[in-house]
Structures are given as structure tokens and as C-alpha cells.
Amino acid sequence: MVHENLTLAVNSAASIGCCVVNTGSEDIMQGKRHIVLGVICQLICRDLVDTITLNKHGELLALLHDGGNAEDLAAMKPEELLMRWVNYHLHLVGCDSRITNFNSDLADSVVYAH
Question: Which residues cross the membrane (predicted)?
Fold first, then answer.
């Protein structure tokens, strides 16, 4: 029963976009911390990112570029909206840096300083 429930949990995580390649119920049952924490981190990130929508945060309309409209923003993925929000605030403080991803562009933490 435990094996089936953990398999269902791993498959469910994969179905919502979490990367669970080579992750199985055995890994969780064996308590492989790096795998368990990796899946948990992805689930938390997915939950947080899914709340970034124009419907829930009307203030995102400030991110419209010249010639853009609300439909353009509404069609963007949450990650794209978040990136645009970060770049918008970098522009507001006069920082020339811009991000295009949440990995290498944030690795040196320079963007966080602004």
C-alpha cells in the first residue's frame, strides 16, 4: 500500500510539471534526502508560481510594454510574468542588469542587491 501511494505521489508530481526523472517510490521509502527535498522544493515552487496570474494580481498591468495589452500579459506563463516583474523593478531603480532565466542570471546574486 505504501509503495502504491508513493508511486501515485511521484506520478502526480510529474503530471503537474515537476521533474521526477529516475525518481521512484523506493527512493522515498529509502529516505534519500536529496531526492525527497528536490521533489518537495519543486512542489512548493509550482504552488507558488501558479498563483502568479493577472486575475489574482491586477498590479501586474504595470508591466505592459508599449503597444502591449492585458491579453498579452494574461497569455504569459507565470515564470515569464515573474521575470518581467523582476526586470521592471530593476529598470525602476536604474539597474542595467536584466534576467532571462532563474538559474545562471541569479547565480551571482547581483540582481538581488538591487
Answer: none
- Does 66 score more than 80 pLDDT? no
Residue 110: which residues within 8 A CB-CB, separation 6 or more?
97
Measured in whole angstroms, the distance separating CA 78 from the mean position of its chain's CA atoms is 7
Q: Which H or E run contains 20?
A: none
For residues 73 and 64, the answer to whether their CB atoms sit within 8 Å is yes
**What pLDDT is stored for residue 15 in this prediction?**
94
**Strands (E) located in 16-68:** none
Rg of the chain over CA atoms, in angstroms? 18
CA distances from 10 to 37, 88, 113 (A): 13, 36, 37
Stated length of the chain = 114
